[in-house]
Give the backbone structure.
Amino acid sequence: MKPQFFAAIHQICDEKNIPYERVLETIKAALATAYRKDFGNKEQEVEIILRDGDGGATVLLIKEVVEEVEDANIEISLKEAKKMKPDAEEGDIIKIDVTPLEYGRIAAQSAKQVILQRLQEAERDSLYEMFKNRENEIMSAQVMRVENGVVHIQIEKHNVMIGRRDQIQSERYYNGKRMKVYLDKVAHTNRGPQLSISRTHPNLVVRLLEMEIPEIAEGDVEVKSIARDAGVRSKVAVWAEDDKIDPVGACIGQKGVRIQSVMNELNNERVDIIEWTEDAKAFIATALQPAKIAEVIIVNGGEDPKVPKRAAVFVEEEERPMAIGKQGQNVRLASDLTGFELDLYNLEQLPAFKEKLSELMEGNEGAVERRIEDKDLESSVTAEQLAAVEASLLEEGDKSEEGNESTLPQAATTGWGDLSGAVTKKLEAAGYSSLFDLQGMELTELEAIDGIGKVSAKKILEQL
């Protein structure tokens, strides 16, 4: 074994980022395995010594000194031990030099595969330890190639894959492209460390904001919550304890330069910065911007953790499409941001909503308040009660629009199933002629149709 061998070990350690001692132990273990295979047996205890001076390898067979030998592989008699070590006593450990001639060449051939395998294991362990402590961090990456929809990137000389679900669908990936990625989790598997890399994770936006905005990085401005539709739009709620700091202005920057840097890194994804407030009503109204919200009623404020938080939002008819957003995106993001399930109503339904809800609450046993105030609503309203109110409002809307049942075409002849006349009128006004035109649409898409609420959307789904 030549001195150049140790120089090669140092080179491997530098390239693979593996501790030098770990590589030495790996080689020693492989050489010991090779000795047992070619010259001894697997029961023997062997120690390998690698000498830096002359580049040699010494094989020592380890045995325990006993009075009477039962297993010659691991034991040696006291009489034989005294021949090697005059002061040997029972219970001592004797190391016997059993290095074969030409052992270095023979061992190298026998141990080659074992050494390679163990070096790979050591590299995997080193990678795991290196990346495990960097979970929830942002990293710089370069695209190496794209195959069958899977993006292969390089992070600090290590190759990692980004699956389809972690890619921004509207983003184009090509060889050599540099970008920021988010390390979500690192798992230790038999195939080595598996890195969960994402371009769609909401925390990617948070980490980018920390990089671009010193106030967030230093803790003067806090990111309270975030909702993201990757590649299209994100809503971020920020807050500052110091009244002298404008959290929204700090994030946007002069002429929008700070937030624009974040948007550029996200393939021009729109990022809305919203000021967080403890007032749930004000927070919900702000989260639904750019729509102007007329009134928000908190139906369930989260007193019971088992019951989802819920709020009724009232808007002018012309503001409703903007509040809902394209394919329900705006209201969906606002709901994720605030943690409330949001039900949108037209403003003219507000008086009837309060009246019906007040009537239902009159029947609640033990209710302290027996009426609905203009600004506040008892949080003891159940989901069943709210559904009853929605159904009642829908029924009244049907009556007011229908006037007379005979004036509307029957469902059987129009292809609308059992839907009411008021609902079919709204669908026809939106350009749909039958249920067939609505095939494949989801609940949020149906709710996005002008004039269609959650209850009506659910009835349409039942018909579909």
